[in-house]
């Protein structure tokens, strides 16, 4: 750090002692020689000899300022010192010489870094501050400012913490001597801000950082908006706020820092060179916010800004490698959280480009090596390519070779290399890799400062490696050392640290593995106890606690431990909380579909399977409802009532969200422990207050079965649970006990194989392919054996007459199979029948969805002819749309139909007219967007899309029936989360339509007209009362039977069409009171 001093005091003495600027330095030596000759004629103690020494020193100083030759500066220092030693017997001149000597020493320190010059200058400034400076015409405030600057400088380059304390004290004193609002006052305030910041770095006390921020704010406030220094202090304050955020986790600091950087960005011209760096900081802030909130919009913003920075960066720039790495880092984060493989591939390309810009010997080569090694390692875990893993290890070995012992990065590099080596051990069973990893971790543990948080992490990883070696070799020392290191790792965590749950869970997993080797029940019991502690640790994020709870369920399930059901209950509750805290439905989906919880997605089905094994059938149903269709529930306020709380104007929603996000965001030190404990207590109180509200009794609780059972008032609901542990069929009826149907032990494997086979065949062959027809036929036959026959037989045993209504509620990948068409099912007269011939089948994503449909529009539809909106969009691939829509208009009657087609079928027009018609018929293209589960859509005029999410956001209180005669409207677009049932048919149901007809895959254009005619003719010829939606499932069955009776019709043509929701009026529910039904369907 360079000192800022005023050299203007030189030459401020009386005229006989002043030095005039030289026109040329050629005569310097002759002038000095003349003075030296003159001095030799004077007695040794003559005061004029001191004056001559001062003048010679000043000449040398002027020469140095012009030539920057160190010899001149050294001569100046010697000359001023000689003048002082001889003495001029003139206090003003002695003081002036003393000041000049001090400033010469400061100059020599600034330019050549000699620490003793800085130490001497501080001593001399202190001495000067006690002299009568006024007699020499020197301003005391300047000396004090220079002294504080010197102290501040030494505090940064030295190890004297008291220097910064002295500097702050002096600055506070000087600030009282300067009028407010002046430039001097602003400079002092900014220096104070820097000094408090430096003190914070030394002490770690949050109060010091708060003082720095306070002074930065004061400086910024004192400058007008157009002041040239305002950008500097905008940046300084933003940096200080981000420092405080990294300590306290207060997202308000992040918000304020982003605002400051945005203002700074607005002040800069588009061509300003600093614009690139401001954008980089904004990108970094967005990424940091994402890591706390999991809001994917923040990550997208970070990526977008990093891309903008790269566009602004010249082709050749000294920091290009850094900018490439920044974008790569955010793309890797997107991959890690959401599994986008294309992002990882792009990140690897960016890291390779960055490494190319950092050839051997480049000071930043290590950073590029580290980033590329990490990204390639991640790819190896996804692709299981050994060459990727070997490249990652080689890159990490090179990085280690560039990092000598004692380098601050060496422990982290050793740790990273050990992780890849452990993976190679797992893939090859070669103990040499595990041994090498353990050696590296032992070295890293010795290099990390004792008590440092990274030491805790290193010890945890080392313990896990030792557990593996124990499991492989059985050496008791490895077991003892692993347990010791785990306990030390936990002890290094301060109370309130969010990583505690993760470490406890890791320790529990290690003990579980040890138990699998030793069989010692004490290890198992401690493992379960640690899992429980991790799950119940209030200061860790819901997502970390969810991972711990899931691991607990795996251990308890495998060991048949008595805590298994408790573990499942805890895990499902945390799954709901983790998803609920996502700020948008997209971010909730991206979390639930992310790689890091891939195994957890089966949690509801696994929990139900365990409950079923324990004969707890009602709890099994509750668990499935609690853990499935969470995104739809959130959008419609069935499961996450925060939106509903907002709608009814209750401030508890804001209070709950604010406290939850604060807890999720906080990172730790012991200084925020009490704050976290207070927040946690406040959150529990808010939850209790919400649960006390009418209709919110089950907030963050599973819905009781007695409430869910109402879904079966119109007919049995058949739940088919698919789990790797065991699979089962449950039949839910109103006012009856649940009926259980066991399945074959290979049920899970067979269904998984069927799903993959059918999906891959459909992707490979076009519509009406005989190959696909054969595969579909085989699928239906196997489904008949697995589910169709058992369901039909048990329903008949229960006295459910043929042609009765039933609802199918499949879980997991079963949701993509045509269970309604399972068959042929054998009968006593050998008639070839499918399940949908025996019973009138509908689907429902969940019991809650069925209850919600039943609760809407309870007063019934208006009497008379229904109002139908027909949306048609013909093109060259759909020539039959026009005749289809006109045929429907003739059947229904033009007085009850509004038909919009062609140019009139715009996105805005359709959305505006949907609330005016209880019935709607779409005849257009249905579009899928792979990897974008919220963007399946109807293709309308001008290539516009009416998307799933836009439909789901609609509120259609009078909606009854939707016929979606378009491709893919009931096809799952997201293989990763089949239990979220994300398709257009479900979107129509959740937006308000009580009865919806959709398609499981592509449909033939000619089927639109034929099936529609059969359907609507059936609807309008069965009597006056069926001019509502109430017979839609039966009418669809009639229409598909007519279609399949036609000669040459392949299976896929009629199997394609499915019914979701109800076909009964609320008034037909017998003794169920409407008020009771409404209460049961309030958001819970």
Task: Describe this structure as you would to a colleague.
This protein has 1084 residues and is mostly helical. The chain contains 45 helices and 14 strands. It has a six-stranded mixed β-sheet with strand order 7-6-8-12-13-14, with helices on both faces. The chain has a five-stranded mixed β-sheet with strand order 3-2-1-4-5. It has a three-stranded antiparallel β-sheet with strand order 9-10-11. β10 (937-939) and β11 (945-947) form a beta hairpin. α6 packs antiparallel against α7, α16 (365-383) packs parallel to α18 (410-428) and α19 packs antiparallel against α20 (453-473). The longest helix has 28 residues, at 770-797. The radius of gyration is 39 Å and the shape is elongated. The model is unreliable at 1-25, 636-641, 664-673, 857-863, 1023-1027 and 1064-1084 (pLDDT under 50).
Give a short overview.
This protein is mainly α and 1084 residues long. The chain is 60% helix and 6% strand.
Jot down its keywords.
mainly alpha; 5-stranded mixed sheet; disordered N terminus
């Amino acid at each position: 750090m360079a000192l800022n001093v005023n050299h203007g005091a030189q030459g401020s003495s009386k005229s006989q002692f002043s030095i005039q600027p030289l026109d040329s330095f050629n005569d310097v030596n002759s002038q000095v020689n003349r003075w030296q000759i003159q001095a030799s004629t004077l007695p040794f103690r003559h005061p004029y000899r001191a004056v001559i020494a001062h003048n010679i020193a000043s000449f040398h100083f002027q020469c140095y300022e012009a030539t920057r030759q160190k010899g001149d500066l050294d001569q100046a220092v010697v000359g001023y010192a000689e003048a002082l030693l001889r003495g001029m017997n003139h206090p003003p001149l002695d003081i002036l010489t003393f000041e000049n000597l001090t400033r010469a020493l400061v100059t020599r320190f600034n330019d050549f870094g000699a620490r003793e010059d800085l130490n001497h200058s501080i001593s001399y400034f202190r001495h000067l501050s006690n002299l009568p400076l006024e007699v020499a015409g020197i301003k005391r405030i300047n000396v004090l400012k220079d002294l504080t600057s010197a102290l501040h400088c030494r505090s940064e380059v030295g190890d004297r913490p008291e220097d910064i304390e002295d500097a702050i004290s002096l600055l506070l004193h000087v600030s009282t001597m300067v009028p407010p609002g002046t430039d001097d006052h602003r400079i002092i305030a900014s220096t104070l801000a820097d000094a408090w910041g430096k003190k914070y770095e030394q002490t770690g006390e949050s109060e010091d950082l708060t003082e720095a921020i306070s002074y930065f704010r004061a400086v910024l406030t004192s400058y007008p908006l157009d002041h040239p220094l305002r950008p500097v202090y905008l940046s300084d304050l933003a940096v200080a706020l981000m420092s405080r955020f990294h300590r306290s986790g207060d997202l308000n600091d992040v918000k304020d820092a982003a605002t400051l950087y945005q203002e700074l960005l607005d002040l800069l011209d588009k061509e300003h060179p600093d614009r690139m760096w401001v954008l980089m900081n904004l990108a970094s802030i967005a990424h940091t916010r994402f890591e706390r909130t999991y809001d994917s919009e923040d990550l997208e913003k970070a990526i977008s800004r990093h891309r903008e920075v790269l566009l602004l960066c010249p082709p050749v720039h000294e920091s290009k490698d850094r900018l490439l790495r920044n974008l790569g880092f955010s793309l890797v984060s997107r991959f890690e959280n959401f599994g986008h493989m294309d992002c990882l591939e792009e990140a690897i390309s960016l890291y390779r480009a960055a490494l190319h810009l950092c050839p051997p010997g480049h000071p930043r080569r290590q950073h590029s090596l580290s980033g590329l090694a990490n990204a390639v390692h991640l790819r190896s875990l996804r692709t299981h390519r050994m060459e990727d893993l070997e490249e990652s290890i080689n890159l990490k070995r090179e990085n280690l070779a560039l990092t000598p012992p004692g380098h601050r990065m060496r422990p982290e590099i050793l740790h990273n290399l050990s992780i890849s080596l452990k993976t190679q051990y797992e893939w090859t069973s070669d103990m040499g890799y595990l041994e090498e990893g353990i050696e590296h971790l032992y070295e890293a543990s010795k290099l990390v400062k004792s008590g440092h948080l990274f030491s805790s992490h290193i010890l945890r990883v080392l313990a896990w490696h030792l557990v593996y070696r124990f499991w492989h070799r059985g050496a008791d020392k490895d077991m003892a050392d692993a347990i010791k290191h785990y306990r030390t790792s936990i002890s290094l965590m301060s109370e309130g640290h969010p990583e505690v749950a993760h470490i406890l869970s890791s320790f529990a997993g290690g003990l579980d593995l040890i138990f699998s080797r030793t069989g010692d029940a004490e290890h198992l019991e401690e493992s379960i106890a640690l899992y429980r502690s991790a799950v119940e640790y209030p200061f860790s994020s819901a997502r970390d606690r969810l991972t711990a709870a899931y691991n607990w369920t795996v251990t308890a399930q495998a060991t048949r431990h008595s805590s298994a059901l408790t573990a499942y209950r805890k895990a499902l509750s945390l799954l709901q909380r983790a998803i609920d805290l996502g700020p948008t439905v997209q971010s909730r989906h991206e979390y639930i579909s992310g790689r890091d919880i891939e195994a957890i997605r089966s949690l509801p089905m696994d929990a139900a399977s365990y409950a079923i094994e324990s004969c707890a059938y009602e709890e099994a149903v509750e668990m499935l409802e609690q853990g499935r269709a969470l995104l739809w529930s959130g959008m419609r306020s069935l499961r996450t009532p925060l939106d509903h709380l907002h709608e009814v104007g209750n401030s508890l929603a804001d209070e709950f969200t604010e406290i939850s996000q604060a807890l999720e965001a906080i990172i730790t030190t012991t200084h925020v422990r009490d704050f976290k404990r207070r927040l946690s207590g406040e959150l529990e109180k808010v939850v209790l207050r919400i649960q006390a509200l009418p209709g919110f009794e089950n907030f963050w609780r599973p819905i009781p079965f007695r409430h869910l059972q109402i879904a079966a008032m119109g007919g049995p609901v058949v739940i088919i649970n698919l789990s790797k542990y065991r699979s089962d069929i449950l039949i839910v009826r109103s006012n009856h006990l649940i009926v259980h149907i066991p399945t074959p032990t290979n049920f899970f494997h067979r269904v998984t194989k069927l799903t993959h086979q059918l999906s891959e065949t459909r992707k490979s062959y076009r519509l009406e392919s005989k190959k696909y027809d054969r595969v579909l036929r085989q699928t239906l036959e196997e489904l008949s054996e697995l589910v169709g026959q058992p369901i039909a037989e048990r329903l008949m045993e229960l006295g459910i007459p043929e042609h009765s209504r039933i609802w199918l509620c499949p879980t997991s990948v079963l949701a993509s199979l045509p269970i309604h068409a399972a068959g042929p099912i054998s009968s006593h007269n050998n008639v070839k029948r499918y399940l949908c011939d025996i019973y009138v089948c509908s689907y429902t994503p969940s019991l809650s969805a069925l209850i919600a449909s039943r609760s809407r529009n309870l007063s019934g539809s208006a009497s008379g002819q229904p109002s139908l909106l027909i949306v048609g969009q013909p093109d060259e691939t759909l020539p039959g749309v026009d005749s289809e829509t006109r045929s429907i208009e003739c059947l229904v009657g033009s007085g009850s139909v509004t038909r919009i087609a062609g140019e009139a079928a715009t996105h805005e027009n359709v959305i505006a007219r949907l609330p005016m018609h209880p019935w709607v018929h779409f005849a257009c293209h249905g579009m899928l967007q792979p990897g974008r589960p919220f963007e399946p859509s109807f293709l309308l005029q001008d290539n516009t899309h009416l998307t799933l999410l836009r439909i789901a956001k609609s509120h259609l209180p009078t909606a009854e029936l939707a016929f979606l005669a378009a491709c893919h409207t009931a096809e799952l677009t997201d293989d990763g989360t089949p239990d979220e049932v994300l398709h257009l048919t479900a979107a129509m149901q959740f937006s308000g339509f009580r009865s919806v007809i959709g398609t499981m895959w592509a449909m033939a254009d000619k089927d639109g007209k034929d099936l529609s005619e059969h359907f609507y003719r059936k609807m309008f010829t069965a009597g006056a009362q069926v001019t509502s939606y109430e017979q839609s499932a039966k009418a669809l069955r009639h229409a598909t039977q007519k279609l399949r009776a036609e000669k040459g019709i392949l299976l896929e043509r009629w199997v394609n069409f499915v019914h979701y929701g109800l076909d009964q009026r609320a008034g037909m529910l017998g003794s169920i009171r409407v008020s009771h039904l409404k209460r049961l369907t309030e958001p819970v």
